[in-house]
Amino acid sequence: MCYVEFGSNISTSVTGDAYTSLNRLSFYPKSDWCHLMGHATRAYRRRHGCYLNIICTEQIYRRPPNPLSCQPHVIRFSGPRLGRLRNDPESVAAVQGLFTDEHREHYPGEGESGQAKRRYRSGLICVKLPLTQGLSIASNVLVMNRQNQLEVLCVVSAVWIPLLDPNIDAQHATKGFLIYHLSGIG
Is pTM beyond 0.85 here? Predict the structure, then answer.
């Protein structure tokens, strides 16, 4: 029997539609940043059939192996290039502006992980075995994705139900959608 001592390190990716994918789950206590990008890009390609255009990541993953693993697949790695910055202030300002814009794209992923910790209690996982801890994390990701699908279904039904049934007006369908959101379910 093997107990988890330090907890899990997970790698997730969030699509533009706010769907979360669990890329990697490990219980190794050290930082494993050097193998992350190659594995994450292969997992993305396996799921979606193509490589992604840009990787927006945290600062710890901006080490030489990761941007180099993205170059063969023409994937742009977020942030300024590694090494010393150029002396030209205009190009440095342009790179910093691009980095700021890319970080705005990175924030939805941070928001999803915060939502998982806050709403779905991923920060309070108390199971001890690696298998049950992995199942608990994977079930949280599944519930988060189902919640997104439920929200889309509510929006679609609020629009289409009044069109299908003339006795129901749009105000009542929208009111049901708002009650759904205000009740804390959404």
Answer: no
